[in-house]
Amino acid sequence: MQHFFKKSLGQHFLINKSILKKIVSLEDIKGKVVFEIGPGQGALTKEIIQKKPEKLILIEKDKNLIAYLFKLQEKFKDIISVIDDDILNINLEDLNYNKVKIISNLPYNIASTLIIKLIKNYNMIESMVLMVQKEVAERLSARVSTSSYSRLSVLIQLHAEVKKVFDVEPCNFNPRPKVESTVIKIIPFSNRKIHYDKLDNVLKISFRQRRKTIKNNLKTFFIDAEEKILKCDVDPNSRPQDLKPIDFVKLSKILI
């Protein structure tokens, strides 16, 4: 089908069939419920169908692609359902699925925001295989005291195991992006008891100025911040990137 790519939607469609097959092979999806976010022209969709999922939910924002996706739905009406909406506007719990597997080439412009949204619903997600910008993959998997370690690193690593699987060169996409991409696998932990909103509040404040100490970032927003930081066995003069994920959990409990 002819399609005018929309830069505003971060559209870069993967066209290398061997890589499409490799992505789908990373998960056993036979008899499973699968979500694909931003299916585009259905290249990955067709590979997923070959693996015989019980249900495949396609979520697409681009109105120009919906008619084509509805034709796929008509062809595979017992398997495919199309949701014509922006994934960021959807409450995933309203879809009433459990133990979902997500396989997607994520739109570049919302990848980080979307992964944070997905991880907040980790109880309903069994696993995710996602194509993202290489920079995003490095932030997701970054270790303490590295330049890529960030709020995103902490949020994801406290809720899931993150693995970088393989990199994909720009030549494998249409249109060709300016950056490399990486396929990652995210496996949520079961029954992780963390107050997400408290944690995220502390993380946003902590990483707002990376060069400042954790004490200086937090004291503007919290009373007796230095004293409470010390109670968590954290050096108040540490930089935010030098704190382990569990340190931020302790801080969120005592500060809020």
Note the main attributes of this structure.
single chain, 256 residues, alpha/beta, 7-stranded mixed beta sheet, 10 helices, 9 strands, 35% helix, 20% strand
Helices, strands, pairings?
Elements: E1 13-14, H1 17-24, E2 33-37, H2 43-50, E3 55-60, H3 63-75, E4 80-84, E5 100-105, H4 111-119, E6 125-133, H5 134-141, H6 151-159, E7 160-168, E8 173-174, E9 181-188, H7 196-206, H8 214-219, H9 225-231, H10 245-255
Parallel strand pairs: 2-3, 2-5, 3-4, 5-6
Antiparallel strand pairs: 1-8, 6-9, 7-9
Helix pairs in contact: 1-2, 4-6, 7-10
Gross morphology is: elongated
How much β-strand is present in the residues? 15-25%
Strand order of the largest sheet: 4-3-2-5-6-9-7
The end-to-end distance, rounded to whole angstroms, is 53 Å
Order of helices and strands: EHEHEHEEHEHHEEEHHHH
How many DSSP E strands?
9
Helix tally equals 10
How does the major sheet shape up?
A: 7 strands, mixed
Radius of gyration: 20 Å
Poorly predicted segments: none
Question: What class would the helix/strand composition place it in?
Answer: alpha/beta
Q: What's the mean pLDDT score?
A: 91
Helix content: 25-40%
